C-alpha cells in the first residue's frame, strides 16, 4: 500500500503545448500571408478549369459570365445548356445566343442605370467602378468559336468590355 | 556567505501557454475565412465596335500601327496596318511563325512585338483573329506574350514592359465559294 501512495504523490501529467503552439504559429503565418483584405463577390465555377496566365492585372469582379462544357451561366444562374461545350447550330449561324442577349440586356440596363456615365473607351478599360464590364470564366479547353459566340452575345447586350478570368501562374 | 548562493538553484518556470493557444484558436478561423487559396488574374479585352467619331486626333500624329495576329492550328501570322507606312514597311513588320510539335515559339513573337513597340511606341492595339478550333489556353498564352514583357534586372525585381495591352478579339470567316479568301468579321 505504501508503494502505491508514493506513486500518487508524483503529480498530474501536464500536456506539452509547445509543439502544438509551434504548429499553430506556422499555420498562422501561412494564413496571414494568404489573407485577402478585399472581399470578392465572385465565385469560381467548380465545373471548369481556368487557363493559367502570367497576367499581373489585379482581379476586379464584375458581371460574372461562366461558360462551362455543360452550359452558360450569368451570376451563377443557368441561362443556356451547352452540349459538350457547343451551342446550337442555329446560334452559330445567327452569331449570337438570343437567350443570353435577352438576359444580359436586362442586366445591362439595370447596371447602366446605376452608373449612367460608363463609356466604352479603351483608355478607361481598367476602370474598377464600371459595372458594365463582364468577367468571363471559361474552361481552358473551350474552343474559340463558342467563346466568341458568348462574347459577341454579351457585346450585343451592351457589355462591350470583357475581362478574361485566369489563374495566376 | 557564498556557500548559500552556490546552493541556490534557479527554479524552472513553465510558461503558461494556454492564453496564447486561446488567441490562436480565435485568429485561425478568422484568417481561414479571408484566406485566398488561389490567385485570380484578369485580361481586359474587347470586341470591335463601329465608332464613327473614332480615328486619330491631331495630337496623336505619331505613327500608330495596328497589329493583327491570326492564330491557326499550324502557324501564327502577324501583320500590321498603318495609313502612314508604305507596303514595304508594313511587310517588314509582319511575321509568320510555324508551330513545332503543336507548340509555338512565343518568345520569338514577343521579341518581334517588342521591336515594333520600340519603333512605334504609341501603338498599343492588337487584333486577335483565332481559328474556330483554337483552345482558350493557347489564346491566353498568346495574350500573355503580346500584352507585356518581363525584363530581368540583376539584383532587382523584373520590370514590366507593356507591349500591346489593348486586345481586340475578332473572328475569321471563310467564304463558302472561295475557301482561301478570308476576311475579318464586322462587329455589331
Beta-strand percentage of chain A? Answer: 15-25%
Supply the number of helical segments of chain B. Answer: 5
Question: What's the main sheet of chain A like?
Answer: 6 strands, mixed
Give me the count of strands of chain A. 6
Share of helical residues of chain B: 25-40%
* N-end to C-end Cα span of chain A: 70 Å
Q: What low-confidence regions of chain A span 5 or more consecutive residues with pLDDT below 50?
A: 121-126
Sequence-ordered SSE layout with sheet pairings:
The complex is a heterodimer of chains A (169) and B (188).
Chain A: H1 2-8, H2 18-33, E1 52-53, E2 63-67, E3 71-74, E4 77-81, H3 89-94, H4 98-114, E5 133-138, H5 144-156, E6 161-168
Helix pairs in contact in A: 4-5
Chain B: H1 2-7, H2 18-34, E1 40-46, E2 66-71, E3 75-81, H3 87-93, E4 95-98, H4 106-119, E5 125-130, H5 136-147, E6 148-151, E7 159-162, E8 166-169, E9 172-174, E10 182-184
How would you describe what is shown here?
The complex is a heterodimer of chains A (169) and B (188). With 169 residues, chain A is an alpha/beta fold. Chain A has a domain at 52-119 and 127-168. Helices cover 35% and strands 18% of the residues of chain A. Chain A has helices at 2-8, 18-33, 89-94, 98-114, 144-156, and strands at residues 52-53, 63-67, 71-74, 77-81, 133-138, 161-168. Chain A has a six-stranded mixed sheet with strand order 1-6-5-2-3-4, covered by helices on one side. Chain B has 188 residues and is an alpha/beta fold. Chain B has two domains: 2-34, no CATH class; 46-51 and 62-174, Nucleotidyltransferase, domain 5. In chain B, 30% of the residues lie in helices and 26% in strands. Chain B has five helices and ten strands, in the order H-H-E-E-E-H-E-H-E-H-E-E-E-E-E. Chain B has helices spanning 2-7, 18-34, 87-93, 106-119, 136-147; strands at residues 40-46, 66-71, 75-81, 95-98, 125-130, 148-151, 159-162, 166-169, 172-174, 182-184. In chain B, the strands form three sheets. In chain B, strands 1-8-5-2-3-4 form a six-stranded mixed sheet. Chain B has a two-stranded antiparallel ribbon with strand order 6-7. In chain B, strands 9-10 form a two-stranded antiparallel ribbon. In chain B, a hairpin with a 7-residue loop joins strand 9 and strand 10. Chain B is elongated, with a radius of gyration of 29 Å. Chain B starts with a helix and ends with a strand. Strand 6 of chain A pairs antiparallel with strand 1 (40-46) of chain B, so a sheet runs across the interface.
Amino acid at each position: 500500500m505504501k508503494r502505491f501512495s508514493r506513486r500518487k504523490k508524483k503529480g498530474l501529467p501536464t500536456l506539452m503545448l509547445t509543439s502544438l503552439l509551434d504548429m499553430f504559429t506556422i499555420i498562422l503565418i501561412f494564413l496571414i500571408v494568404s489573407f485577402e483584405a478585399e472581399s470578392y463577390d465572385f465565385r469560381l465555377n467548380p465545373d471548369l478549369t481556368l487557363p493559367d496566365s502570367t497576367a499581373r492585372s489585379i482581379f476586379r469582379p464584375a458581371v460574372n459570365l461562366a461558360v462551362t462544357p455543360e452550359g452558360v451561366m450569368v451570376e451563377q444562374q443557368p441561362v443556356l445548356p451547352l452540349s459538350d461545350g457547343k451551342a446550337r447550330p442555329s446560334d452559330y449561324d445567327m452569331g449570337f445566343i438570343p437567350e443570353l442577349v435577352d438576359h444580359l440586356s436586362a442586366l445591362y440596363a439595370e447596371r447602366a442605370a446605376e452608373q449612367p456615365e460608363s463609356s466604352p473607351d479603351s483608355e478607361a478599360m481598367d476602370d474598377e467602378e464600371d459595372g458594365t464590364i463582364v468577367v468571363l470564366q471559361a474552361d481552358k479547353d473551350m474552343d474559340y468559336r463558342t467563346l466568341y459566340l458568348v462574347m459577341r452575345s454579351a457585346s450585343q447586350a451592351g457589355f462591350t468590355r470583357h475581362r478574361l478570368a485566369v489563374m495566376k501562374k | 556567505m557564498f556557500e548559500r548562493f552556490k546552493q541556490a538553484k534557479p527554479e524552472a518556470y513553465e510558461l503558461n501557454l494556454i492564453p496564447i493557444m486561446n488567441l490562436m484558436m480565435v485568429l485561425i478561423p478568422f484568417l481561414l475565412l479571408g484566406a485566398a487559396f488561389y490567385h485570380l488574374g484578369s485580361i481586359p479585352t474587347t470586341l470591335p465596335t463601329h465608332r464613327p467619331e473614332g480615328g486619330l486626333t491631331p495630337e496623336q500624329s505619331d505613327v500608330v500601327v495596328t497589329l493583327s495576329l491570326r492564330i491557326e492550328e499550324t502557324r501564327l501570322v502577324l501583320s500590321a496596318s498603318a495609313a502612314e507606312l508604305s507596303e514595304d514597311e508594313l511587310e517588314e513588320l509582319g511575321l509568320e511563325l510555324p508551330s513545332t510539335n503543336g507548340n509555338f515559339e512565343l518568345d520569338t513573337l514577343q521579341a518581334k512585338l517588342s521591336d515594333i513597340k520600340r519603333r512605334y511606341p504609341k501603338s498599343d492595339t492588337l487584333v486577335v483573329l483565332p481559328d474556330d478550333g483554337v483552345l482558350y489556353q493557347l489564346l491566353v498564352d498568346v495574350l500573355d506574350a503580346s500584352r507585356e514583357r518581363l525584363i530581368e534586372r540583376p539584383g532587382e525585381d523584373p520590370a514590366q514592359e507593356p507591349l500591346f495591352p489593348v486586345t481586340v478579339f475578332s473572328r475569321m470567316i471563310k467564304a463558302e465559294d472561295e475557301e482561301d479568301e478570308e476576311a475579318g468579321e464586322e462587329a455589331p
